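Hi V.,

You were right to ask for the full record rather than a summary. Here it is.
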Amino acid sequence: MNILYIVPYIPNPIRVRPYSLIRFLAERGHAVTLATLASEQQELDEFDSMQSNINHSRLAVMPRWRSLWNSLKALPGSIPLQAVYSWKPEFAAQLVHLFKHVDGKIPFDIIHVEHLRGVLYGLHLKRALEKMDIHVPVVWDSVDCISYLFRQASHQSATRRSRWMTRLELARTETYENWLSRQFDKVLVTSMADRQAFLSLVGSEEYEPPIAVLPNGVDLEYFAPDPHVVRETNTVVISGKMSYHANVSMVLNFVHELLPLIREKIPTIKLMVVGKDPPREIRALAKESGIRVTGTVEDVRPYLQGASVSVSPITYGAGIQNKVLEAMACGTSVVATPRAVSALDVEPGKDLLVAQEAGSFATAVLFLLEDAELRRRVGNAGRRYVEKNHDWEQIVTELEEIYYDVIDAKRRAHSRDTC
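Predicted structure:
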């Protein structure tokens, strides 16, 4: 297949979904043209590293001031700020131009657009192709149901700014996602919970939008136990992109509510907070004894492989939590809240430990820290779970089937219309 893959940010190992889907699609022989936007030099460097996985590319520079200006202009309207954040009309025109051929051959079999931030490009291409009488299906990979995330964050975020922003965006994001769910040949999400959240926006209408679940995976060769790494005693790791509001709340909740309970039993407990772009309130935690905030790291694996326990006490979230899967893939025993594993088909008590309340969560961490055999057993079971359920090869096979189905359905619909 020839695939036009539109992502409103540069794919990289942290933005693991587009990075891995593109990589494995290319390895399976598909021709991928990546259309993406960058806002800073680091992202331009990351774009260069993607070149070996793609056949062609289109890159636009999207300064942050322009994204903020887009958002400011959209404030009085009804479209979510997320939807306009990455919109650049000149770039959209470039994508339409890719289809203006002279030899009668359509250059792409399918268009894949990721995230709410990229959705305007999908809508623009869809309308333009209809006017050009070109019948190429468009798949929108929403990833998460953003209004589902916002509804949780509006009440549970640990920062006032996040609560205010999500309340501002919630109603119009719900309305917009409801409408979007009917605009594409297929809508993808990472979990059944997100699919159900979309369907709840639609309500009791007879029409059911074409929403499919495509889970996230793990690069099992990259994230793996390392027998040469000795795990540090009484060391807990918490990982994720630290500029993300749900992760900020997670870390603050752990440090203020859970860590003191663990310290009562193990005063020497060490906490490593690992992830890029930590805000001021996260960086300030490094002033406390026993807490290290790394910021951006070149490779997260040594921190996962070297910790005694990985924790994911998220209080709200949507989709699949890759930080949980990556820790499990490294053979690290994990303690998580039910929300962190709601999209996973795990067996609590075997593949990882699950606890909700502060006291029970701290107790679960202490069980693992004080029992090396339990840590080994849970870590090994977690690795086996990821191998069985979250191999990118298997997930890309599912994506191929979705592509072929929508291509076939588009052709059949066009044939009916022309009869």
